[in-house]
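Explain this protein:
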Amino acid sequence: MAYDLSWLRASDAKALAAAPPGWKRTGFPRVRLIVAASALVVTLAAWLIARAAAVDLSAVGLIALAVTLVSGALAVWALVRRGAEPTLLRLRLTAEANGFTFDPYGLTGLDFELKGAGAELSGGRYFHDAHGTEFGTLSYTTGHDKEKRTHAWHYVIATLPAKVPPMLLDARSNDVLVSDLPSSYAKRGRLSLEGDFDKSFRLFAPMAHQQDALYILTPDVMAVLVDDAAAYNIEFLGDRLIFFTEDEPDYERASDWAEVDRLVNTVAAKLADRAVRWAHQL
């Protein structure tokens, strides 16, 4: 299936005209500018009066500087917010056209391991539907002081029709000398598969489920993973597939929606049949 992306190309005026009921419109920044200008005029007048009366000007000068800085910051903040409004609207309208709910600051409630890899966890550009498909970004920090680093990840979650054994595919394409997986990921038993699959992924599965992993990852499934998901690490968690890579997508681009489409409707769809077969043979 291909997503309807027509709203991504809509003009600002068209997006604003289609704002859904309840959309919180950003106030026009002119109001803030008028308030800021008035405060500045009053402060300057007070400074001139104090100067004419031979009053110590140091305190008045500091107040004038503070008012100027605060007023300018408020005006800039208002302009930035209003500039982002059409973008957020286009994303929301695109989401709704394809059966998704959009939250600019949301994060999935699914408790997968990546969410516990650091501190200060936050999420953004979060999309989810009623069928268990979710995608967005998350970030967290590691280290302290000068060693502090922010990690930004892109994730896509697809739901399978049945639970599968726990597995982890570590993509080699996103490695820089060593694996990009966070240190929080527990390395289960390493399992080598036939053909060239090991050139694209490292497979980890608990010893008790290694035969199950071989049952799920048939040659045709491995071919789809290599062709369509080689840029992503993949965690198998019950009936969920979590694709993730350390990258920040831009869902204003059609190419990033095409990535989601391929992972959900090609890769996960291919694994769905194996999941059902595995569940039935238990």
User: Anything to note?
Assistant: The chain has two domains: 6-97, 103-280. The first helix runs from residue 12 to 17. Confidence is low (pLDDT under 50) at residues 72-84. The helical segments are 12-17, 30-52, 58-97, 197-200, 210-216, 219-228, 254-280.
